[in-house]
Amino acid sequence: HARVAAGWAADTGQALTQTEACLLLADLAEERDAAHLADDLVRRALVVAGAERVVRPFVTPGAPGQAALARVLPGRGDALSAVLAERVGAPEPAPEPEPLAVPLTDRELSVLAALPSMASNTEIADELFVSVNTVKAHLKSLYRKLDVQTRRAAVARGRSLGLLG
């Protein structure tokens, strides 16, 4: 039994190495605009991996050969391809936005809430009963706390943090 297990481990190790090599070569082919070659290399990787049920090289985040894999998988009917199609086709979960190091003040939240309307600084000042210079100061502080440079970016960041509806 030990001899069989050792042979299986060697086969699996070779399959893993060959699969990873094919995927790396597929990426190189993609970079050289040789999509057909990349597809052939991914097909080869799938054959080698399927024989030993090797999955990891295909599903590791940032794994090579993903563009060709996405093209090749839909046309295949084997078990490994079915498993990979579920994993490769599923979008990666969006990373959670970094929480604010310094919370926004109530006034900054009011200014942020006015930004999606594309109101001018004067219009925001009139709405909040403050001076234009006060709005500018709040915007400067808001941009710094949100780590953004523009109104559009502030609105996007505010939405991602759940500060805007």
Tag the structure with descriptive keywords.
165 residues; mainly alpha; Arc Repressor Mutant, subunit A; 2 domains; 9 helices; disordered N terminus; DNA binding
Account of the 3D structure:
With 165 residues, the chain is mostly helical. It folds into 2 domains: 2-89; 106-160, Arc Repressor Mutant, subunit A, CATH 1.10.10. The chain has helices at residues 2-31, 35-52, 56-59, 66-72, 79-89, 106-114, 121-128, 132-146, 151-160. Mean pLDDT is 81; it is low at 1-10.
Topology of this structure?
Elements: H1 2-31, H2 35-52, H3 56-59, H4 66-72, H5 79-89, H6 106-114, H7 121-128, H8 132-146, H9 151-160
Helix pairs in contact: 1-2, 2-4, 6-8, 7-8
GO molecular function, one term: DNA binding
Organism: Cellulomonas hominis
Domain HTH luxR-type: 97-162
What's the pLDDT, averaged over the residues?
81
Number of helices: 9
Strand content: under 5%
**Helix content range:** 55-70%
How many individual β-strands?
0
Largest sheet data: none
Assembly type of the shown chains? single chain
- Overall 3D form: rod-shaped
How far apart the termini lie comes to 63 Å
Structural class: mainly alpha
How do the SSEs run, as a string of H and E? HHHHHHHHH
Radius of gyration: 26 Å
- Unreliable stretches, pLDDT < 50, 5 or more residues? 1-10
